[in-house]
Amino acid sequence: MALKNINPTTTNAWKKLTNHFNEAQNLNIKELCKDVNRKEDFSIYFDDLLVDFSKNRITKETLDLLVELANEVDLKDAIEKQFLGEKINVTEGREVLHTALRSSSDEPILIDGKDIKPKIQTALRKIRSFSNKVISGKWKGYTGKQITDIVNIGIGGSDLGPDMVVESLQYYKNRLTTHFVSNIDGDHVSEIIKRLDPETTLFVIVSKTFTTQETITNAETIKNWFLKSATIFDIPKHFVAVSTNLEAVDNFGIDKANVFPMWNWVGGRFSLWSAVGLSISLSVGFDNFKALLEGAEEMDLHFKNEDFNKNIPVVLALLSIWYNNFYLAETEAVLPYSQYLKKLPDYLQQAIMESNGKGIDRNGEKVDYQTGTIVWGSTGTNMQHAFMQLVHQGTKLIPADFIGYKESLYGLTDHHKKLMANYYAQMDALAFGKTKEEVHLELKFSGNEAKINQLLPFKVFEGNRPSNKILFDKLTPKSLGKLISLYEHKIFTQGILWNIYSYDQFGVELGKELAKKLLNS
Ligand SMILES: O=P(O)(O)OC[C@H]1O[C@](O)(CO)[C@@H](O)[C@@H]1O
């Protein structure tokens, strides 16, 4: 059964939200936060994670109406269909089953009458055994030396996810050095090659289609470089592939035993949980890779089973819709207070914008409301010294997710105290601002009385700028899995509510075609 096809703007809830917005747009976060129960009422605790969304321009009525909207478009039914493996990626005629990759239940998931779980388990065993061999040094290069370097060759979903996770889990890394080559820009691959020894490097070519221009060009360049010192008989010791296109992999010269599976029921940008994550397992070990999957599964179960008003991905999706569709905010920022997460915004840009950057609804009609948000961000505190001026005092409304960790990994408590003081201070500054009266007093007592009239307007902070606090105990493989899964389900929820198809990406094709034509002309 297909997904329901409901234009959200025709629902009763949308009409109520529109009326409610007329009053609610004057809501003031500072006033709202005077309610001593607000924090508790607008917080969700889930194991090692707290999501506090009290600093938003919402009341209980807003949340109720947003939940009503989710119910009216039958989000529950869509969630069930996704987890059951119905072909909800209608435009590509595919299931959307990245959740199956991390499912530990024995419940079968059938595609065309066949359970896919055994295939997933076999792939995981292969990832484990291969990672163990390479990490332990049992796997040898063509001159008998151990592998020291891993190069992931891929782009988009075949690069951003593994690259972001390896960067984020640096603390858990083993002796191997991991590199990522993605850009067709030859300077990228050249810079990486410069650092490599062909005798001790393992190349992981990741491409679902194995036709992507960037990946195949980079892989060919690397193979030619490798063959300057080795022979084609040495390729099996140094090249492995992750793909659905076994024929193309074979044509490239990769040994059948060195091919890891990919499946059409997993979208590229949701594939880091599959063998696409091989470089993750190689970099941090299979146990940590498994823990990442476990964290993601915990969030899957929360998303699947929790009531919408206490459901973290659903609530964050609804808040984003509130700002995107009613306040007409165009962008949202993702601001992790951890240098480890510096690649998260890049990763989320593909996940969110390739999924929900759609202007045609599930009827094939042009939508007459806003869909996918523009996502951007960087790490705190660096970004405080870069773009936060605009977020605090600029003319645009930019809802922001502040991601933080109670504990640091190296235990430098002095640093962490300062980091977290900034984390909380930014959210308070955005929400509560600084009034004319406060600025006035400040200037008076700082000996700048003469300049009060001149400086006052520039020093006022309007405040009333929304943020979500997403706070984990500690950055671990498991908590990272939870965080990524959280955003995946937020994407799904928004796609359902906007009545669009989130799992195709036809918008990237035209540019590819034109580039090919130009090359051949
Ligand atoms: O894994 P492949 O087939 O090389 O594709 C790479 C990327 O290209 C896209 O198809 C389009 O950019 C992405 O969705 C995908 O992640």
Automatic annotation (TrEMBL):
CDD domains: SIS_PGI_1, SIS_PGI_2. It is found in: Cytoplasm. Keywords: Cytoplasm, Gluconeogenesis, Glycolysis, Isomerase. Its EC number is 5.3.1.9. Pathway: Carbohydrate degradation; glycolysis; D-glyceraldehyde 3-phosphate and glycerone phosphate from D-glucose: step 2/4; Carbohydrate biosynthesis; gluconeogenesis. Gene3D superfamilies: Glucose-6-phosphate isomerase like protein, domain 1. It catalyses: alpha-D-glucose 6-phosphate = beta-D-fructose 6-phosphate. GO terms for biological process: gluconeogenesis; glucose 6-phosphate metabolic process; glycolytic process. The active site is at E354, H385, K512. PANTHER family: GLUCOSE-6-PHOSPHATE ISOMERASE. Belongs to the GPI family. This is Glucose-6-phosphate isomerase. The gene is pgi.
